[in-house]
Amino acid sequence: xxxxxxxxxxxxxxxxxxxxxxxxxxxxxxxxxxxxxxxxxxxxxxxxxxxxxxxxxxxxxxxxxxxxxxxxxxxxxxxxxxxxxxxxxxxxxxxxxxxxxxxxxxxxxxxxxxxxxxxxxxxxxxxxxxxxxxxxxxxxxxxxxxxxxxxxxxxxxxxxxxxxxxxxxxxxxxxx
Length: 176
Hints:
The chain is of the alpha+beta class. Helices cover 38% and strands 33% of the residues.
């Protein structure tokens, strides 16, 4: 009986420690990846200023070729909206809308993953030599609970690999 009581006390202490530590983890997480594209910002910009063009080099299209994507609003710039639906757990469902554009410099979007939460993503284009440094970033609020904050520790690994694949595809598309 004493063994069971000690195991239960140990489990309660472990859960408490995990929860308390989780509360001190960062609420907001950021992920950024970059690539140098051998083209001027003016050549790269159309590929990030349109969610239809983004779909051509997005890393998630290959994961689920059955993904259903619909677009609304203007074809480029502020108000361009993409909604996707997928049964694949690595793709899921969501909505992305372009919120802000600085021509040939940056595009900022809002992401809504439904029950999974919201995030903000962006692309920054900076001339570098004869090319353009493209930075693709994401900031997400992991919430006030410890579970979300623990998941936040893994965001860079999860999303970073997809961003690297996407940027490589963008590079191939623009330089192609």
